[in-house]
Recover the amino acids of this structure.
C-alpha cells in the first residue's frame, strides 16, 4: 500500500458536504450529544423492558408526565441565564396544586357544582393567581430589596413546605372535577393531532426561511440551504413519528399541547423581545449591561414574576393529572427543573441557554424516571442517579465554558 493512500485526509481535502456536517456538529455539539443520549437511554430501557418502555401507552404517558416539570424548566432557563437560581419552584407548584384542590373541594364544587366549565375555569384562575402573586413577592425581595436569590428561594422552599402542610392538614384533598381533570388527562382526536402536526411543520419551514432572510438582510453568516433544510426535515419527521405514535394509544395529549404553546411563547420572548435579550445581556456581563442602560432590577423582577406564573401553570397541571392535593406535592421538582436546564445547555455561569435544549433535557430526566420505575428500581436509586446526572451536567458545562 502506497504512502499516499495511507496518509490522513486534510480538512481542506474533505468533500464540502462532510466539512459542513462536521462544522455543524462542532457548533451544536451539546444539542447533538443530548439527542444521542436520549436515543441511548430509550434503547437501553426498550431492551430492559422487552419493548414496554416505547409501547404506545407508556410513550404517551412519558410525555404527559414530563409536562409538569417541563413548565418549571421553561421558566428556570431565564432565571439561570441571568445568573440566579430558584430552589422554590417545586414546592410552589406543589402549593398551587393543594390550594387549587382545597378551593375546588371546599367551595367551588359546592357553589358551582352544576357548571363544570366554571369550576374548572375558576380552579385554573386561582392556581395562576397564587403562582403569579408569590412570584411578585419573591421577585420584589430579590430584585429591589437586594436579597440573594439563593437565600430567598431556599427560605421559600421551607416556607411553602410548611404552607402545604397547613392547607392539607396532613390529608389528601380531592381535585377530580371531570372537566378540570381533562387539562392533564385529556386527549385530542387523531384528526386534530395530524392537523397540529401539519401546522407545526409549516411553522418550522416558515421560521427557517424567515430566519435565513433576516440573516441575509443583516449580513450574518448564513449556513447552506441544504443544511437548514436537513434540520427542518429531520424535525418534521420527528413530529410525524410522534403524532403517529401517540395516535396509536388515545391521541395527542392536552398538556403536551399546552407545553408547546408555553415553550413557543417563552422562546419568542427570549429571542425577539428586549425582555429576553436583556436577560442574556445581564447574565453575560452584568456590569456591561448596567452601563448600557439596562434596568437590571426591573428585568430580574419580571423574570421571577414569569417564573411564579409558570409555577402556577405547573401546579394546575399537577393537580389535574394526579387528581389530588397531597402533602408531598412538588417534592424534588426543583431538581428535575434545574437538571433539565443544565442538561439542555443552560450555563450555570449565566448568559447561555435555550428553551429547545431545556425541553430535551426535561425529556431525558422524565425518561430516566419513567424507565427506572418500569424496571422496578428502588426509589432511593432514582434520586441517586438524578443527583449524579446533575453534578456531571454542571461539570460538563463548566469544562466546555472554560474550553471556549
Amino acid at each position: 500500500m502506497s504512502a499516499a493512500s495511507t496518509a490522513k485526509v486534510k480538512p481542506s481535502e474533505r468533500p464540502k458536504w462532510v466539512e459542513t456536517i462536521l462544522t455543524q456538529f462542532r457548533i451544536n455539539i451539546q444539542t447533538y450529544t443530548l439527542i444521542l443520549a436520549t436515543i441511548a437511554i430509550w434503547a437501553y430501557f426498550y431492551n430492559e423492558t422487552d419493548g414496554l418502555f416505547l409501547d404506545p401507552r407508556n410513550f404517551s404517558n412519558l410525555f404527559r408526565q414530563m409536562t409538569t416539570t417541563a413548565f418549571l424548566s421553561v421558566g428556570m432557563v431565564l432565571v439561570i441565564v441571568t445568573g440566579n437560581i430558584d430552589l422554590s419552584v417545586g414546592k410552589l407548584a406543589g402549593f398551587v396544586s393543594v390550594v387549587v384542590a382545597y378551593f375546588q373541594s371546599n367551595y367551588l364544587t359546592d357553589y358551582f357544582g352544576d357548571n363544570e366549565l366554571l369550576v374548572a375555569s375558576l380552579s385554573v384562575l386561582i392556581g395562576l393567581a397564587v403562582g403569579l402573586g408569590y412570584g411578585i413577592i419573591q421577585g420584589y425581595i430579590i430584585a429591589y430589596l437586594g436579597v440573594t436569590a439563593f437565600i430567598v428561594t431556599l427560605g421559600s422552599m421551607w416556607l411553602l413546605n410548611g404552607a402545604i402542610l397547613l392547607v392539607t392538614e396532613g390529608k389528601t384533598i380531592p381535585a377530580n372535577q371531570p372537566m378540570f381533570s381533562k387539562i392533564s388527562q385529556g386527549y385530542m382526536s387523531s384528526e386534530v393531532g395530524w392537523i397540529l402536526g401539519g401546522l407545526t411543520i409549516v411553522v418550522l419551514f416558515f421560521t427557517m426561511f424567515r430566519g435565513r432572510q433576516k440573516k441575509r438582510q443583516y449580513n450574518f453568516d448564513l449556513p447552506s440551504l441544504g443544511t437548514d433544510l436537513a434540520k427542518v426535515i429531520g424535525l418534521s419527521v420527528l413530529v410525524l413519528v410522534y403524532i403517529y405514535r401517540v395516535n396509536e394509544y388515545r391521541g395527542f395529549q392536552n398538556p403536551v399541547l399546552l407545553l408547546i404553546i408555553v415553550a413557543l411563547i417563552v422562546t419568542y420572548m427570549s429571542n425577539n423581545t428586549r425582555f429576553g435579550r436583556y436577560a442574556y445581556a445581564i447574565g453575560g456581563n452584568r456590569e456591561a449591561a448596567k452601563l448600557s442602560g439596562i434596568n437590571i432590577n426591573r428585568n430580574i423582577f419580571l423574570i421571577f414574576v414569569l417564573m411564579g406564573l409558570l409555577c402556577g401553570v405547573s401546579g394546575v397541571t399537577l393537580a389535574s393529572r394526579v387528581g389530588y392535593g397531597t402533602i408531598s406535592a412538588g417534592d424534588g421538582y426543583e431538581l428535575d427543573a434545574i437538571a433539565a436546564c443544565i442538561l439542555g445547555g443552560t450555563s450555570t455561569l449565566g448568559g447561555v441557554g435555550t428553551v429547545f435544549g431545556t425541553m430535551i433535557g426535561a425529556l431525558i430526566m422524565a425518561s430516566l424516571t419513567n424507565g427506572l420505575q418500569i424496571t422496578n428500581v428502588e426509589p432511593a436509586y432514582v434520586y441517586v442517579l438524578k443527583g449524579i446526572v446533575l453534578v456531571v451536567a454542571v461539570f460538563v458545562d463548566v469544562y466546555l465554558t472554560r474550553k471556549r
